Amino acid sequence: MNRLPRVLARFPRVIRSSLAPRAALAASTLVLGVLAFGGGIFDDGLPSADGAGDSLQPAPASDTAAPAPNYSPFVLDLHTAAPGALPFHVVSFKDVGMSLPDDAARQHAYETLAEALSLEIAGLTTELGAPMTSSVRHDHHVTDPAAHLACEGGHLYVDVWRSGADGPYGYSLWSGCGEDDRFAYNESVGPDSGVASSAMDPLAEEIAESLEGALRRRCFQRAC
């Protein structure tokens, strides 16, 4: 036997007879609305097993942050017989995305690049025609990011990277820390093979050519 809702029992019989169909209709409408809107959400506020409430969950945090740069411990000291002919006395390297697999591979590539660039610089001359030489030294202090909070005068900063696992290498040359201090940029140095260390020779050659051009023009800014 169907019973009227308890709230309707308080009204007179005549009123109840007119309210009952409306109450039933309202109750049915409410139930259908909850099912349509809730999508399977139960009274405990948790999504149902079919995952209908998954859209209410917060999106996971992104873990694709750019890796921190690595600083090479291999530094070049530049020399020339002509006083004042050389604007730089030190060359340091910063790896901003070479995608090397481990620290051993990084150290090998960094040392190879420094040695290769030292040989390339030996064939350069300053704008005054004075020959240049360089020597490689190991300085663990420069691997600390805190050592690069400010730029030094007479310092050439070299950023190196690779565009993807099999892509070309790139570099940029900086005379200081500001955007206007970048005086060379090349992102299309192709490796000779898949071995990172073998790509350091062509990379050093391109860096030396950019440095030679800047020395010839006496231009160490983005615009001169």
Explain the overall architecture:
This protein is an alpha+beta fold. It folds into 2 domains: 6-56; 70-217. Helix content is 28%, strand content 20%. The protein has 3 helices and 7 strands, in the order H-E-E-E-H-E-E-E-E-H. Strands 1, 2, 3, 4, 5, 6 and 7 form a 7-stranded mixed sheet that branches. Strand 6 and strand 7 (182-189) form a beta hairpin. Helix 2 (103-121) packs across helix 3 (200-217). The chain is globular, with a radius of gyration of 35 Å. The N and C termini lie far apart (97 Å).
Summarize the helices and strands and which ones pair or pack.
Blueprint: H1 13-38, E1 70-71, E2 74-80, E3 90-95, H2 103-121, E4 132-138, E5 155-162, E6 169-174, E7 182-189, H3 200-217
Parallel strand pairs: 3-5
Antiparallel strand pairs: 1-3, 2-3, 2-4, 5-6, 6-7
Taken together, the total number of domains comes to 2
Biggest pleated-sheet summary? 7 strands, mixed
Average pLDDT over all residues? 77
Shape, principal axes of CA atoms: globular
Which consecutive residue ranges, at least 5 long each, have pLDDT under 50? 3-64
Helix content: 25-40%
Radius of gyration: 35 Å
Which structural class best describes the helix and strand composition? alpha+beta
Keywords:
single chain; 224 residues; alpha+beta; 7-stranded mixed beta sheet; 3 helices; 7 strands; disordered N terminus
In short:
The protein has 224 residues and is an alpha+beta fold. 28% of the residues lie in helices and 20% in strands.
